[in-house]
Amino acid sequence: MKNYYSEPNGYLETMQKAYAAIRTFDLRISHGVGTHKERIDRLKQEIETADAVLVGAGAGLSTSAGMTYSGERFERYFFDFAERYQIKDIYSGGFYPFPDKETLWAWWARHIYYNRYVDAPKPVYPELLKILKGKDYFVITTNVDHQFQRAGFDKKRLFYTQGDYGLFQTAGGAVPETYDNEEWTEKAMEAQGFVRDENGVFQVPDSRSIRMRIPTELIPRSPSGKAVTMNLRSDDTFVEDAGWHRAAAAYANFIREHENLHVLYLELGVGSNTPMIIKFPFWQMTDTNEKAVYACLNYGEAYCPKQIERSAICLDGDIGALLFELK
User: For the chain, which terminal residue's Cβ has fewer other Cβ atoms within 10 angstroms, N or C?
Assistant: First the structure.
């Protein structure tokens, strides 16, 4: 709690803005005004002229970049788990009650590696960075795959609110620290029989002979020998470490420094599961700043409250394709 109140906390502040939005907006929604071309042209202009761009990114951005949790990627790397345990996709596999810790951590090694330590199949993140080149920007995201940093975004301008696949924490959250898991992940992948290709990326061998268990001695532990779990926000044991708090403070400061300026709130792929962290606060900040513009790029869920439709740009479609149009 001392850490919470010793410096600005953007996470708490964004929640407060979300509750303000709930009180402010009614149930009327708009899908934007103007033709598709007019909206694209307007967004181009806003990116060029805005004093700052605040990007809010959800799962839809990574999906557009090819970081899918089902289909070909799942069938290629998790085919054995699918056959034995009838798991249907990567997401649901993270909740499966595996019979032992050796199998559990074999699953998580693959889950971590293919969603954290490889680049996205499509260059959507690098293209977004090109569009933001030279702009005063900040990114808040609920994604935990670290693709922003892998694409070259400045880590001081990123706030990963929900954790990071690349970090472990002590089980139960008793210790307020996190631990990098890259070295462990690579050892666990090798122990299962994965082999590196010419680019250094682990692949299933041609024989498809891989194991679904890791050696007992490879079950991950904290530096002090305690049991660990993933640093992902699922309940109140989630560890918000020193790095998390620095990012939360940076986010709060960015909002305060630009709250009365021409800000473009650029929402990318945020669905209905986590509106409190990005969508609702973006609506509220647009509503309270007459210079602000809200842009929503989403496949099938591009909308805004009726009250701010004149300050909004809603573009329905694949985010990668929309970014290509902006170029």
Answer: N
Question: Distance (Å, rounded) from C-alpha 173 to C-alpha 236?
Answer: 8
Q: Does residue 227 lie in a domain region? A: no
Residue 185's contacts (CB-CB under 8 Å, 6 or more residues apart) are 109, 112, 113, 116, 117
CATH number of the domain enclosing 16: 3.40.50.1220
* Per-residue pLDDT at 4 exceeds 50: no
Total tally of structural domains belonging to the chain = 2
Give which of 189, 192, 191 is closest to 211, Cα–Cα. 192
CB 157 within 8 A of CB 151: no
- Give the model confidence (pLDDT) of 131-158 as tens digits: 999 999 999 999 999 999 999 999 999 9
User: Could you tell me the pLDDT band of residue 119, with boundaries at 50, 70 and 90?
Assistant: very high
From start to end of the chain, where are the E strands? 29-30, 52-57, 137-141, 158-160, 163-170, 178-180, 195-196, 202-203, 228-232, 263-268, 293-298, 304-305, 312-316
Which of 300, 290, 315, 280 has the alpha carbon at shortest distance from 33? Answer: 315
- Residue 308's nearest CA partner among 277, 281, 272 is 281
Position 6 scores a pLDDT of 60
Q: Which residues constitute the domain of residue 97? A: 72-119+182-219
Tokens (6 digits) for 258? 């630009």
Cα separation, 148 vs 317, in Å, equals 21
Closest CA to 196 of 122, 118, 144, 120: 118
* pTM score: 0.95
Which of 137, 127, 147 has its CA nearest to residue 326? 127
Phi/psi at 30 (5° precision) = -130, 150
- 133 is written with which tokens? 């080149």
Answer whether 32's CB lies under 8 Å from 39's CB.
yes
CB 47 within 8 Å of CB 131: yes
